Amino acid sequence: MSLNTTHLNQSLTHFDHHSSFWLFGYGSLIWKAGFPYLECRPAHIRGWIRRFWQGSHDHRGTPESPGRVATLIPEAQAICHGMAYRITPETLAPLDVREKNGYLREVTTLHFDDGGSAEGLTYIATRDNAAFLGPAPLENIARQIALARGPSGPNPDYLLNLADALRRLGHRDEHVFALERMLTSLLKEQAPPTDP
Ligand code: SIN
To answer: Domain spans of the chain?
Structure first.
């Protein structure tokens, strides 16, 4: 099931009158910006963990066979690392469309890895959105990702690119890395045998 959140997001007006502001990305927005930005800085936000608990019917899966992509789940003391982009307000319109499958703009405090902080926005798919899939054994999540593919490409690419991007940033995320390990071995099992 899916619910288009584009219009809901476009009714939100935080930062409308700022010439620029910060957007925090923690999923595909880390490794595939695909939008114009004025600068980017590695950053983290506090009180959230990244989880592959959001269904993707529009990018990395289909309504019949949804993929799984990242969202943020509140957890006291947790830190979620990602990338901050300084953008202008016009950039939100295409992002609202890209994040339409359940994500809502949320105001948050970004802490830059090299010091300092700023208020900004992040897109979060909360538990009450129609595409939310929620927790499942990691093995099941990895299997679902291994099989799914959507208009933006194979679901495995999303996870593998995210894991690579986090490694390049120098951050560990055990949820992502454990899924990456399982997915990699599933993909090996699925690969056709090579000639000796
Ligand atoms: C994000 O990357 O910040 C949001 C989720 C996604 O687009 O993958």
So the answer is: 6-189
CATH code, 6-189: 3.10.490.10
Give the active site residue among 39, 64, 90, 99. Answer: 99
Tokens (6 digits) for 186: 């599933």
CA distance 67 to 86: 29
Ligand 1 pocket check: which of 80, 103, 110 to mutate, most ligand atoms within 8 Å of Cβ? 103
Measured N-to-C along each axis, helices 174-190 and 138-147 cross at an angle, to the nearest 10 degrees, of 50
Q: What would the pLDDT profile of 13-45 be if each residue is shown by its tens digit?
A: 888 889 999 999 999 999 999 999 999 999 999
What is the per-residue pLDDT across 48-94, written as a single tens digit (0 to 9) for each? 999 999 999 999 999 999 999 999 999 999 999 999 999 999 999 99
